[in-house]
Each structure stands twice: as structure tokens, then as C-alpha cells.
Amino acid sequence: RERKRVVQVVLALIILPFALWGLDSYQNAGNTSAVATVNGTEIGQAEFEDAVMQQRRRLREMAGEDFDPAFFDRPEIKRSVLEGLVMQRLLQEVAGDEGLVVSDEQMAQIIAGVGAFQKDGRFDKQMYEAALRAQDMTPEIFEYRVRQDILNRQLTDAYAQNGFASNATAEKLIRLNEQQRVVSVAALGLDDFIRKATVSDDEVGKYYEQNAQQFQLPERVQVEYVVFSAEALAEKIDPTAKQVQDYYQEHMSEFGTQEQRQAAHILISVPRQATDEEKRAARSQAEQLLQQVKAAPAKFAALAKQHSQDPGSAANGGDLGLFGRGMMVKPFEDAVFSLGAGQISDLVQTDFGYHIIKVTAVRPSKVQPLSEVRALIEQRLRTQQAADRFAELAERFNDTVYEQSDSLQPAAELAGAKVAGGVWLSRGQQPDELWTAKALQAVFSDDVLKDKRNTAAIEVKPNTLLAARVTAHQPAATRQLAEVAGGIRKLLQRQTAMRAAEEQGKALLAALQSGESKRLGWKPAQRLSRAQRSELDPALLRQIFAADTGKLPAYVGVADPQQGFIIARIDAVQEVAAIDPDKRERYAQQVRQVTGEALLAAYLEDEKARADISMKDFAEGK
What we know:
Layout: H1 4-13, E1 34-38, E2 41-44, H2 45-63, H3 75-98, H4 104-112, E3 118-119, E4 122-123, H5 125-134, H6 139-160, H7 167-178, E5 180-188, H8 190-196, H9 201-210, E6 216-217, E7 220-229, H10 230-235, H11 241-250, E8 256-257, E9 260-269, H12 276-295, H13 300-307, E10 319-323, H14 330-336, E11 348-350, E12 353-363, E13 366-367, H15 370-403, H16 409-415, E14 420-426, H17 437-443, H18 446-449, E15 458-461, E16 464-474, E17 477-478, H19 481-513, E18 526-529, H20 538-546, E19 554-560, E20 564-574, H21 581-610, E21 613-615
Antiparallel strand pairs: 1-2, 1-21, 3-4, 5-18, 5-20, 6-17, 7-14, 7-16, 8-13, 9-10, 9-12, 11-12, 15-16, 19-20
């Protein structure tokens, strides 16, 4: 929970608009069995399982306590994740064919700009690596994913951000959305019809026989259980002062900031395809600038604004801000960290061209005192010691549950936990975080149900074991007619009343539409538009705005299961008088977004149709 914001940022960085993960080093990992192929290139089981794991983690962060661990066991969800991997692989092939690239400098700027990786407003390498470790990622895997995601975005944004909308279309939408209709409604309520509705005993009995499945009671068991978790163990651990001090000394590098430098540069760029003559010309220009800088160091910023060919920093006098080691290409970094504050380098050559560098500030490394990080260290020690203790006791807990299968008390004493009870579980019920599909399957197994044994110790989530035993059992049964007759009678009375209300309502509506005058309890008139929200039934609203208003008043009506039959009278229509240009532009932007998304969807479907794709069928369980 403490890292929730960091987790969300990391996930957001490496996730496409349609919420599917990119490729990583698992492409060539141990399990080579293919779950899909794209134009002859395989997507392996390991890569797929990693994508599922990352999606599960993402959903857990979003859903919190409502997260259902069994969600990703469903075939349609597995299929969706695999389709995402297939589309990503396809997009990467197309991006490669189009020659799209992401430079190291772009990557460095993107990652350095992420708030979750910064300390005091500056990129911090230790925070960066710690955040990735918490997500079981190395910088190499993370940066690969970010790079692939950027490439895919470059390709997809070309469609998604280039939708089209004419002014005429925007204006028509405004007129449709903001047209107002003055409407009064009246309802033929169900209560009177229900009081008049009669249902015979034969009708009740017939409904019971024809709908017997509605009155089935599932098989149920009452269970007692014990939960053994590292989290519970951690609450009982109190690290000693010596343990805290030792940890601080051993991990001091994690509690400090690395040395950082602030530098400015003047870049004379050299394209990768430059000729020897162009390279010599660029070097000559850089050497001349270097002479000017050495002669007048105070004019560095002015010369950078005038001559630097780095569009990202030239306007700021070449300033690159603070950065640490690992953020710049190596020749550039080596030069910066060899200079003192105020010093100017000779020419430094990188893949981007020739640089003249001035170090403007040096921020030395700094270690946080123990007092500032004590709480963090204590929490880490609790977690670490609890995990170690859990690992030591887990096998003994499992053995105790199995060997003393007639009681959970010995296992509870070993775990330092209590036996909980009084919980009723139904066969086929929806799994949750504690009673997972595997746990439910265990309590309804023959050993547990018939032989009255403990379940095995079941891992319901990482570092959490559950063992249970059945204390009461109720077989599946059908409720007797006498128990449900009252409910059936009310249901049938309501259905009969609804039919009568609809029949009478339609006749009344037809009379009003033909010009007859009828007395109804009309509610006060209200102004409605397509754009505003309303408490009226959506089906009635659709009819109100679909009605021909050439002759007023106009009448429409719908049957409503809760209210009976509702009639609406349209008394007036008010059109939009004038259209504000700013509003027209907002509408046009929304249309461009919709059409852009449609363009992207069509493009993706076209690429899929032309590709040779095969995928595992999870419905078959193969």
C-alpha cells in the first residue's frame, strides 16, 4: 500500500491505451512452448504468464479489496491478454518496417521526468531501482518495455490523433444535443392493477413445476478455519536496536542520494549518415565555438541559445538540469563528472555530435541519518523476518494439518492464530480473496466432506495458508411449494397487473395520438435535452427525442416494470439560437477523438486480417 502511487506510475508508463503489456526478456526464457504465433514468430508460455501476472497486479492495485484472484482464470480473460500480446507483436513488426526508433536521449528524458523516480524534484537512481524491484523488474526490462511502448504509440497515435470533424458536423451535434423539449409525464401506476389481479392456486402450482430450478438450494457446508500468514507474523515482530543499526550500516547506499551535477552544453549535431566532409565541417564549427567560450565563459548561455542544435536545451542557455550517473551517454557523463563547478570541457564527441560542456553546479552525495529511516528499516526487518519465519513454519503447519486431521487447534497453536468458525459456503459460489476456487474445491472434496478431515494447507495468496474443516453439511435440495407459494403468487399478480397496465396504457396513448382529450394526472412540465441527465426511463427518453414534433402536442409512451405504463406529452421544442465558437471547437475535438479511435480500430483490424496469426484456445483447456 505504501508503494501504491509508485506502482501506478510504473504501470502507466508501460501500458498501452488498450491496457496490454509489451514484450520483455521472457521472449527467450525457459518455457518455449508457444501459445501464439504472429507471422511465424512465437509468443511463448513464459511471456504470456508474465503478461497475465502484470495485468493481475495492475487490477489488484485498481480494485483493492474488491479484487477477485480467480478473475484471470476465466478463458475469456486469458484470451484477451493473449490477443493484446499478439497485437503488440504485430505493431512492433510494423514499427520496425516503418523505421521508427526511440533514442537513448529520449528514453533518459522520459524516465528522468517521472515524479515517482525523483527526490527533491530531481531524478534519483536509487528510488528508480527500488521502485522497479518492488515490481519484480530490472531497469533493463523496464526500459525495454518503455521503449517498445513508445514505438507502438508513435504508430497508433498517427491514427488515433488524426480523426476528422467538420464544423457542420459539430454544429449539427450541438443542435441535436442541446435542443430542448418541454415535456409532461403521467403514469398508470401498478398498485391499482395489482389489487385487482387474481391468481389461482393452479397457476401458482404450474409456475412452481415449470420453474423448479429457481427454487433449488445449493449444497452448503459450515466450516471452521485457520489462516497462517507472514503478514500476521510481522505484527508480532519487534526488531532490536542492534538489528536496525546493522541493517542501516549494510544498506547505507539505499538511504542516500548519489552525487549529481548540473551542466549546460552546446551541441553541434552530426547526423548518423553524415559524410566525412560534413563531419569535418561540424567539428570545425564546434572548435570555433569552443574558442569563443574559452575566451568569454560568461557568454556560454548566450552562445548556447544562438548556436546549440539541441532543441530541448538551447532556449534555456543549454541547461540540462541536475542529473546523476547513468542518465547520459557515457562520453558525456565521463566529461561532466571529471569537471568541477564552473569548469568547461574540451570538445566531447558522442553519437549525437560534438558537445561543449560547462558544469554549473555540483551536489555531493548525502546519506540520510538513521533517525529519518528507522521506521522504514523496522518495517523492512519485520517483513523480512516474518517471511523467514513463515518459510520455516509453513511445512510444519502443512504436516500438522495433515497428521492431526481431526482438529485445527494444533495447527492454530503452531501458527499463533485462532480457529475461526460459523462460515457457510455454497458449492459453486463466487470465489473471493480468502475462499478461492481452490479452497472451495477442497472443502467440498470427499476427504473433507465425508471423512471429516481437515483440508490440506492451501495457499490463497503469497505467504498466506488456509486450512479448514467442515462442521455441518446441507445437501442440495428443492424448496417445498408451501415455502415459496406466497412469493410466486406476488410475482404472478405483478405480471398480470403489468399486462393490464400496458394494455390500458397503449389504448390511452392511441386515443391521445388521434386527438382525443383524456384526463390524466400530468406532472409539472420539465425541459429536457439529449445532453442532460434525467430521472426518466431511458426507453421513454429515446421515444421523446425520436417523436415527430411537426404537430404539438405529441404523445409517446412505454411500459415500465416498476411504474406501470408512462405517457409523455411534448408541448414545445426550443432549438439552439446561436452556437458559440469555443463550444463548437470542443464538440469538434470530441468528434475527432471518436473518429480517430475508429480509424485506429480499423487499422488494427486490417493489420490482423493481413497477418498470419494462430492462438491457443483456452476454452478447450489445452
